[in-house]
């Protein structure tokens, strides 16, 4: 099962079963949260086990979405849109995931300091 953690290891997670190829989000909120853009995969909430939840803090970034990060090291880990799935940051996984970036979203909001020339499909919003 794929496993991962925050930078300091205070929050650890495990995903049971398969998950989707990741999506890279270039929206302003994700860029400001991560310092660049966010790449994450969707997993069913019932498939995600989190250890160290007392070190996990939630930030309500909009009326519909909250984002989870480690209280100790500040690592961004989760995107929860209050549905039956949750997004997990790809950079937090410990080992190779066997996935390939599937899509760039919100490219109309991307930073002006980088180009997207990887051939992955893009959507403006």
UniProtKB/TrEMBL annotation:
Q: Any idea where the CENP-V/GFA domain is? A: 2-112
PANTHER family from the xrefs?
CENP-V_GFA DOMAIN-CONTAINING PROTEIN-RELATED (PTHR33337:SF40), GFA DOMAIN-CONTAINING PROTEIN (PTHR33337)
InterPro entries assigned: CENP-V/GFA, Mss4-like_sf
Span of the secretion signal?
A: none
What family does the entry list? Belongs to the Gfa family.
The organism of origin for this protein: Rhizobium halophytocola
Q: Which UniProt keywords apply?
A: Lyase, Metal-binding, Zinc
Q: Which domain of life is it from?
A: Bacteria
Protein name in the entry: CENP-V/GFA domain-containing protein
């Amino acid at each position: 099962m794929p496993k991962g953690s925050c930078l300091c290891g205070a929050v650890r997670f495990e995903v049971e079963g398969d998950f989707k190829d990741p999506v890279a989000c270039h929206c302003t909120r994700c860029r400001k949260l991560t310092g660049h853009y966010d790449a994450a995969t969707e997993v069913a909430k019932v498939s995600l086990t989190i250890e160290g939840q007392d070190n996990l803090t939630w930030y309500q970034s909009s009326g519909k979405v909250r984002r989870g990060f480690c209280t100790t090291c500040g690592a961004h880990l989760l995107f929860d849109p209050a549905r039956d799935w949750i997004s997990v940051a790809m950079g937090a996984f410990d080992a190779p995931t066997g996935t390939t970036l599937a899509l760039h979203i919100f490219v109309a909001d991307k930073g002006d300091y980088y180009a997207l020339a990887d051939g992955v499909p893009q959507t403006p919003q």
